[in-house]
Design goal:
Blueprint: E1 14-15, E2 19-23, E3 30-35, H1 37-44, H2 50-53, H3 61-75, E4 87-93, E5 96-102, H4 115-120, H5 126-140, E6 154-159, E7 163-168, H6 180-183, H7 185-211
Antiparallel strand pairs: 1-2, 2-3, 3-5, 4-5, 6-7
Length: about 210
């Protein structure tokens, strides 16, 4: 049986609204996402709404959404989608079941910078903008469902095979009660175009705020 990964005494690399992200203790090429304890208590504890208690996957619904989208995109092509962070599997941890992901890193070995960092450090150059356009085009023409797209969950990386490119590291999956985007490609495409527009607006706001400093 695999050993239980000890994460409680480690500092998270980053965090989202519902999950903490740690470097895998035994493999720096991997990350481990775990559900934040306060989120479990707040959303799935004794005082949670009745319909959430009846959800089959409970607190692991975010894992299910992410895995479903990874597999849905993989079904349409013979290779991993480079615009999505690769899922490796699961791991037992001292903070509950963890979702193991491939770490997306920059050329110096650090975590890949996100869009906000690129804008704030004046690194969103022509190469990066071209890569961003290609990234959005790949997402639009795929069947992936996006639930959140912001300056923090889109990161910039490089490989010898692909050159510079962007990866979405969170915010995928259908989070509405009625799965219209899963049923209709037209609705899903329209939803993604709306998210792209909002992303561009946030980029402009970030640029404007950075120029005032």
């Amino acid at each position: 049986m695999d050993p239980i990964l000890q994460l409680k005494n480690l500092e998270p690399l980053t965090h989202g609204r519902s999950r903490l992200v740690f470097e895998h203790p035994d493999d720096p090429d991997l990350l481990v996402k775990v559900i934040r304890p306060e989120v479990v208590d707040d959303r799935f504890g004794n005082n949670t709404k009745w319909y959430k208690k009846r959800r089959r996957f409970g607190k692991f619904i975010s894992y299910i959404r992410e895995i479903q989208e990874f597999l849905a995109v993989r079904e349409t092509q013979d290779h991993d989608a480079h615009f999505l962070q690769r899922i490796v599997g699961f791991a037992r941890t001292d903070m509950g079941l963890g979702l193991v992901m491939e770490a997306v890193r920059w050329t110096d070995g650090s975590l890949a910078p996100n869009l906000a960092t690129l804008i704030n450090t004046d690194r969103l150059d022509d190469t990066a903008n071209k890569a961003l356009d290609q990234f959005l085009d790949e997402i639009l023409n795929s069947n992936v469902i996006i639930s959140d797209m912001n300056l923090g969950n889109i990161v910039y990386t490089f490989s010898e095979n692909r050159g510079h490119y962007f990866v979405l590291i969170d915010g995928i999956g259908n989070n509405s009660l009625l799965p219209f985007k899963a049923i209709s490609q037209r609705i899903n495409r329209r939803s993604k175009l709306g998210r792209f527009k909002y992303l561009r607006m946030r980029m402009e706001r970030c640029r404007a705020k950075n120029q005032k400093k």
